[in-house]
Every structure is written in C-alpha cells, then in structure tokens.
Amino acid sequence: MDVEKSDDMTAKVELDDEGTPIKNRSNHWRGLIGFWILGLCNNFGYVVMLTAADDIIKSQSGEKDVHSGPRDCVYMSTGAILLADILPALIIKLLAPFIPFFVHVRVSLCVLIAAAGFVMVAFSDNITMSIFGVVLTSFCSGLGEVTFLQYSAFYDKNVLSTWSSGTGGAGVIGAASYTILANFGLRNTLLMMLIMPISMGISFWIILPNPSEEDEHAAEIQRRVNTEEVSNAKEVFVQKVKKLPGLLKFIIPLTTVYLFEYFINQGTFELIKIKKDFVKPEDQYHYLQVAYQVGVFLSRSSVNVFHVRHIWIFSVLQLVNVVIYTTEAIYYYIPYFWIMIVLTLWEGLLGGAAYVNTFYRVSSETKEEDKQFSLAATTFSDSVGITFAGLLAIVAHNKICDLPLPDSAH
Known about the structure:
It holds the Pfam family CLN3. This is Battenin. Its main location: membrane. 72% of the residues lie in helices and 2% in strands. The chain is mainly alpha-helical. The chain is globular and about 65 Å long.
C-alpha cells in the first residue's frame, strides 16, 4: 500500500496495489451496490402486484364477474391490474423529465407512497380499494425509475448495469417470494414486504456515495444543468422537446418489445391451462410469472458481458412469441407445462435484454449535458408499451373467453 501526496502537499491519498485511490474504489463499489438495491426495491412492489393480480381479482370479484362458459374465465382479466399498475407510472414518466430534479424530495415520496400502497392492498375489502393501492405502488415505481436513472448520470455508467440487474432481481425475488409466501394469505404477505420501501431509503441515504465523490466531472456538469433548469425553465423546456426526435431510435424498439411481452403476460398467461401435469392448472399463472422474471433478471445482468446494438431484433422475436402464446391460449396444442416454462424464460430474456441494452446505448451515445434528460425521457417507452398491452390484453382475454374449448381440452 502506497501513500501519495497531492500537488499542494496538504492531503494524503492512500493507494492500493494498482495505484487506485482506496476511497475511490470503495465509493465505486458502494455506487454499484447501492444502485442494485435501488433497482430491486423500486420494481419489487410493481412485480408483486402483477404476480398477485390473479389472486386480487379472484378474491375481490363477485359472481357477476365470472363467465360460466366452457373456459370458466374471470371477465376482469389481470390486464385491469396491469393498467392500474402502469398508468400512473406512465404519467409520471412523461412529466418527470421536464420537472426540476429535486432528488431527495422524490425519493422521500417514493418510500412513503410505496409503503402506503402495500398497506392499502393488504387491508382492502373491495376491488376499488385494491386497485387504488396498486395505483400508489405504480406511482412510486414510475417516479423511482425516472429519478434513479436520471441520478445515474452523476455516476459511472456501469451503475446502469447494476440498476438493471436489480430491477431484474426484483422480478425473480418479488414473484418467487409472493408465490412462496402466498400460503400465509394476501394480507400477511404484503405486510411482510414493507421491508422494501425501508431498504430503498437505507440504500439511497446511507449506502450510495455522494455523487461528487464518485465522478466529480459528471457531477459538476449535471449540477450546472439542474441550475439552468430552474433559472431558465421555459427555454430549457423548449430545448428538451427538440431533443425528443433524436431519441426515437431508442424509444420505438423498447416500446414495441414491452407491448408484445405484456400482452403475452396479462392477456394469455391466465388462459393457458395444461391439465395432468406436475403443476396444477390454478397454480400455473404464478409459475409462468416466476419463469418470466428469471429470464428478465438474467438478461438485465448481462450488459457488462456483451452488448446488442441492434435492439430492434428483440421486437421481431417477441412478436413471434405473441403468435405462439395466443394460439396456445386458443387451441391448447402444447402438451407439457415445462415447454411453456422454457418459452416464458426466453420471453423474459428478450424483454430484459431490450431494456438494459437500450439504456446502455443511451448512456454511451449521448453527451454528458444531455444524458440526464435522455435517460429520463426513454423511461416512458416501456410504460407506453405496457399501457397499450393492458388495453389489448383485456379485449383479447374476453374474446378468447367466449370461444369454445378445443377438442384437445376435453
């Protein structure tokens, strides 16, 4: 271990064997770990609400909502929960890039609103109250995503990889933990998950290093940008709008990927029932959600291993999956549930890869002074796609419910 004096001879900086300041290395790892935990906590509630969607609908729906036809469908599909879980996030993502960046206020709101969402759904006694609780969770998720991605502009670009990995981890841990804990009942399960908003606050205010300690140059540029936003709000707003067309090459592919995959998840998953298999038909929805989230986690953690520049390829492959899942929901031609697990894992891999490679490209290909806005503006891509997916899923779900069962189901 060496000791190096600064140019003014007033400070000593401890170096490791590779000549890197020990404090800088420590802050670097704190930044990576902090953003992983933030990604986990931010998306956890969103994932739990989608995994619990089938249970929320069935526990709160009266007999009038149940179709007594051959497919025994619930007319209010999980697409309704999806819309409640994404529309508030879409609204905040559309507005946040144009709002001055007061990060501590935003994170405080996220922590409080996320906790309120869990509590409201846990103690709900009707579908309206449940959906409002989901709305609160969605608002937190949307505000958190746009805020933390903007905040990542102050740090090394590798925090985007750990953030994305954390959001993928939220999928696996959220879906799996709900599936495992569901035996304790919806209320107890959701109350146990209040640990996540608390962990978000700990990660942001304690684990994450001060931005200026992580990347002083980037932090100085971003501070200058934020100051200008407050002092010249109208002019800055016009400049931001003019930058949007240049971001369409990122926004359009990511939007279509999420449109296709969430149509699959919320429009077809609960309609796919493979009988006489190792998983009971009523439990298959949860298992498919877990398989999807495992795929998302793996691919969102991959960007430091390899990059995919042509992100449109994910849209094409996801469209193929739409055809497979929709025809399976109608005709029941896939004989074994493990085939559905593999297909769903693949679907998740495509979605996660599209997300992390899109934001990696945005971070790598935009100027430092534009990075914060570009990252924030691109976040609404997934929400737009998911919103349209929810609308289409409700229509498609009810149309398929009215179809007769295929011969293979008898």
